[in-house]
Amino acid sequence: MKVSDILRVKGNTLFTTTPDDPLAEAAKTMADKDIGSLVVMEHGDLVGMLTFREVIVAVVNNGGQVGTTLVRKAMDDAPVTCTLETDLDEIRRIMLERHARYMPVMDKRMLMGVISFYDVAKAVVDAQNFENKMLKAYIRDWPEDESNEKAG
């Protein structure tokens, strides 16, 4: 399974912010949309990721207040990315290694979507459920052993 398969099921709704937006506004967008990340774009290019993790760290570092902090100060300015062709097993490995919960999907310089650890876990569970269903159907339809029929 490839990243393109996950995005096809998930859809391609993207929520973005800019580095110069107030962090408070970005956090409100995340809360209102019930999402865990925003892609940070500047002049059409991916320049960072803002997740709830970065928001919490920024608030703690600012004495429990968001204040006038800008997204630029809080964002991860070197997010790990993948392509539409990246294999699901590779995504799992990268996300676990880098502790990344969200990963922008790029096609050269074009942002195609974002996949989350949840999206990856759901794809794995769905694939396993499908495989289990196929195996159970195969076992149920197992042909009788011809040697047993002739012996009886």
TrEMBL record:
**The keyword Nucleus belongs to this UniProt entry's keyword annotation:** no
Q: Is the keyword Nuclease assigned to this protein?
A: no
What positions does the domain CBS occupy?
6-66, 75-134
Provide an example Pfam family for this protein.
Answer: CBS
**Keywords for this protein:** CBS domain
Q: Which positions are tagged coiled coil?
A: none
Recorded hits in SUPFAM superfamilies, A to Z, give: CBS-domain pair (SSF54631)
Write down what this protein is called.
CBS domain-containing protein
> What is the source species?
Variovorax boronicumulans
